[in-house]
Write a structure and sequence with these properties.
The chain is of the alpha/beta class and 280 residues long. The chain is built from eleven helices and seven strands. The chain folds into two domains: 11-209, 3-Layer(aba) Sandwich (Rossmann fold), CATH 3.40.50.300; 213-280. The chain has helices spanning 29-42, 72-76, 88-100, 113-123, 125-132, 146-162, 187-201, 214-222, 227-232, 235-242, 246-267, and strands at residues 16-21, 47-53, 65-69, 103-108, 135-142, 167-173, 206-209. α4 (113-123) packs parallel to α6 and α6 (146-162) packs parallel to α7.
């Protein structure tokens, strides 16, 4: 039996698993996963981050994160339990999240859709989550690029078959342009958006992520900082960390703060953990 999902969610609705995926890289998938992590932490939740990525891209896990290398899926075919055997650490983490009413974020690397579907089929993940009382959200990220929208549509359709208990959420990332499509601007992109992507979305909640420009975020990213760091630290301290002037740093902070605010408003259409406003 699938647990019904009421929207928006509240802190009392935990534990929750947030599955984030996109077939193509560079569409903002990991940005969203990190935002979900930071958002949960700001709400006082226990957050468990799981990365599934190639060893070439992410050789070692960050502190406090669990890493599964995509290359291991090939080797796992010879193990008892196949690909599903790689998800044993995930099961343990989900049980921790259940005990703490926390949130688990799974960040799937680009190009791993087939492995993702295979694992969820073999494990019966959505049925297991329902039995454990853990709610599930599957965030499918797309930009306005035609191939990415088509991939997202297939992803949504496949997940409804493989794991119908994971509630799909379509994420429109404005990285490659906005989605305010009119008859005058329809073109090929508009037709794919309307006839393919929206048709696949059906009744799924839809949120939009505003563009966060490289000029505003890159200095902090290069310094190994996350958005919570940026929004919490004094601008003068930040200026020293990133080696920029106070004026430039304040401008960058303003850019990141607006992205956080606008993205939070979108996210809270389907997910609400926040108990107090973050200082900006």
């Amino acid at each position: 039996m699938i647990i019904p999902m009421n929207l928006p969610l509240t802190k009392t609705d935990g534990p929750i698993i947030c599955d984030v995926s996109a077939e193509k890289g560079g569409v903002g998938k990991t940005t969203l996963a990190n935002f979900l992590r930071d958002y949960g932490l700001e709400g006082g939740l226990s957050v468990y981050m799981i990365r599934i990525e190639s060893r070439r891209i992410l050789p070692t896990p960050a502190p406090g994160e669990t890493l599964i290398h995509s290359e291991d899926f090939v080797e796992a075919q010879e193990r008892v339990g196949g690909s599903a055997s790689l998800f044993e650490p995930v099961e343990a983490i989900l049980k921790k999240a259940k005990a703490s009413s926390g949130i688990v974020v799974i960040d799937w690397g680009a190009g791993l859709t087939s492995h993702r579907l295979k694992v969820y089929t073999e494990t019966g993940l959505d049925l297991w989550l329902a039995a454990e009382g853990i709610r599930g959200l599957s965030f499918v990220v797309t930009t306005r690029e035609v191939d990415v929208m088509e991939q997202a549509a297939r992803n949504l359709a496949s997940m409804r078959t493989v794991a119908p208990g994971l509630m799909p959420v379509l994420v429109l990332n404005e990285l490659q342009g906005h989605f305010q499509i009119t008859e005058e601007t329809m073109g090929v992109q508009g037709k794919v958006f309307e006839k393919t992507l929206m048709a696949a979305a059906q009744e799924a909640p839809i949120i939009k992520l505003p563009l966060i420009g490289a000029k505003g975020w890159q200095p902090f990213h290069s310094a190994g900082m996350n958005m919570r760091d940026v929004l919490r630290l004094d601008p003068s301290q930040l200026a020293k960390r990133i080696g920029r002037s106070d004026f430039t740093t304040r401008s960058c902070v303003s850019h990141v703060s607006k992205w956080w605010h606008d993205s939070t408003e979108e996210l809270e259409k389907v997910l609400s953990f926040r108990t107090e406003e973050i200082a900006q």
